[in-house]
Design a protein that fits this description.
heterodimer, A: alpha+beta, 4-stranded antiparallel beta sheet, globular, B: mainly alpha
Chain lengths: 172, 79
């Protein structure tokens, strides 16, 4: 048995019960091949970092399981056929896995982990966006006439800023 | 002519080696966000001084996060 985790994104206009149906179908495939589900998390509706099939949001579902390669292939085949699924990603976590031991381990660490995840989801929308944009504007205002083509381009990481400072110092 | 100013780079230490509780995971976007620019490019290890091993894991994680739309390939990182 190998341990895998799969994340799939479902279209935002799909109802909870349909997502439930997709999830149970997935788990039945895994269990049909002799695998075990370790945990299933529904991360809920999240904003996507880029458009996928013209959707800007999606329901994320996370499935952690022990199974065989053939069941991964089958799950992914079904995901590709299903129109409601925007994207999926399967990652192999380990080559050998004892599902019972993993479950026990998770059960002891469970309460913390789940609360952390929920916080992460909640805090995302109001994260430091206003700060970042205002910083950018300030930076642009401060050096309007200085001949730095790099500074105006989108790559303004610390490395460039450092080298700019050095040049200025030399000029003095 | 002004004397040449030598810049003494601070001793940089790998954040992940210093703080073992920080894990690199493609699902934990909040950690990964510290290591990309505002436009989503991965910041090279010479800037933050990550060790080679952790930088490698970090880039892997960021690329996975991009695949599943948790992070952008390009564009604003803050959602």
């Amino acid at each position: 048995m190998r341990r895998y985790e799969t994340i799939f994104i479902v279209r935002p206009n799909v109802g909870e019960d349909e997502i439930e149906a997709i999830t149970s179908k997935t788990s039945s495939i895994i269990e049909g091949d002799g695998g075990t589900i370790i945990r299933i998390n529904n991360w809920g509706l999240k904003k996507l970092a880029y458009l996928i099939k013209k959707e800007s949001q999606g329901h994320y579902v996370y499935v952690d399981f022990a199974g065989i390669p053939a069941s991964v292939a089958e799950i992914e085949r079904i995901f590709r056929i299903d129109d409601r699924i925007l994207k999926y990603l399967t990652v192999k976590l380990s080559d050998s896995c004892d599902p019972e031991a993993v479950k026990e381990q998770l059960a002891s660490a469970e309460p913390e982990a789940t609360s952390d995840e929920k916080e992460a989801v909640k805090e995302q929308p109001d994260s430091a966006e206003p700060e970042a944009t205002s910083d950018e504007k300030e930076a642009v205002k401060e050096q309007p006439a200085s001949a730095e083509p790099e500074a105006s381009s989108d790559e303004k990481d610390t490395g460039i800023n450092e080298s700019d400072n050095v040049e200025e110092e030399k000029a003095d | 002519m002004a004397p040449k100013k030598r810049i003494f780079p601070r001793q940089k230490i790998c954040r992940f080696c210093a703080d073992k509780s920080l894990v690199i995971d493609y699902k934990e976007v909040r950690t990964l966000r510290n290591f990309v620019t505002e436009r989503g490019k991965i910041i090279p290890q010479r800037i933050y001084g990550n060790c080679a091993r952790h930088q490698r894991k970090l880039t892997d994680a960021i690329k996975k996060a991009r695949q599943i739309a948790l992070m952008p390939y390009s564009g604003p990182t803050q959602l």
